Amino acid sequence: MNISLCPISAIDEGEARSFILPQTRLFVVKSVGNIHVYINRCPHLGIQLQWQEHAFLTNEKDFIKCSNHGALFEIDTGLCISGPCRGEKLWAIESSIVAGILEIDDAELPLAQKLEN
Ligand code: FES
């Protein structure tokens, strides 16, 4: 079953947005017109990446940044290219846009839920 997150127009280019679902926490990045959805869990310590709401990107908006210890992740792949979890990846969630609404498939969330342990 699909879960609606928000109208796609609510996320500006080069911006990120966090979401809290009953199952897990997510964040969404819109970059170069593409949408990327990740579980909000840094592979380093298994905690949230951001200290301030929606603040997931570097100042230049060219990488996802973990506020805890500065790990940098590629926006389009979630691969950590710098920091203590270099070589690991954020957990990506498939998404779709239906009638202008950003949706995810909740079938992916139980897998993601295991990461919270
Ligand atoms: S918790 Fe993210 S870099 Fe340490």
Summarize the structure.
The chain contains one helix and ten strands; from the N terminus they run ββββββββββα. It has one helix spanning 109-113; strands at residues 2-7, 15-20, 25-31, 34-39, 64-65, 72-73, 80-82, 92-93, 95-98, 101-105.
Characterization of the model:
There is one protein chain. By secondary structure, the protein is mostly beta strands. It has a single domain (2-116), classed as 3-layer Sandwich (Rieske Iron-sulfur Protein). The protein has one helix and ten strands, in the order ββββββββββα. The protein has one helix at residues 109-113; strands at residues 2-7, 15-20, 25-31, 34-39, 64-65, 72-73, 80-82, 92-93, 95-98, 101-105. It has a four-stranded antiparallel beta sheet, with no helix packed on it. It has a three-stranded antiparallel beta sheet with strand order 1-10-9, with no helix packed on it. A three-stranded antiparallel beta sheet has the order 5-6-7, with no helix packed on it. Strand 9 and strand 10 form a beta hairpin. FE2/S2 (inorganic) cluster binds at residues 42, 44-45, 47, 66, 68-69, 71, 83-85.
State Rg. 13 Å
Ligand types: FE2/S2 (inorganic) cluster
Helix and strand sequence: EEEEEEEEEEH
Number of domains: 1
- CATH topology grouping: Rieske Iron-sulfur Protein
From the helix content, strand content and strand pairing, which structural class follows? mainly beta
| Total helical elements | 1
CATH superfamily: Rieske [2Fe-2S] iron-sulphur domain
Report the strand count.
10
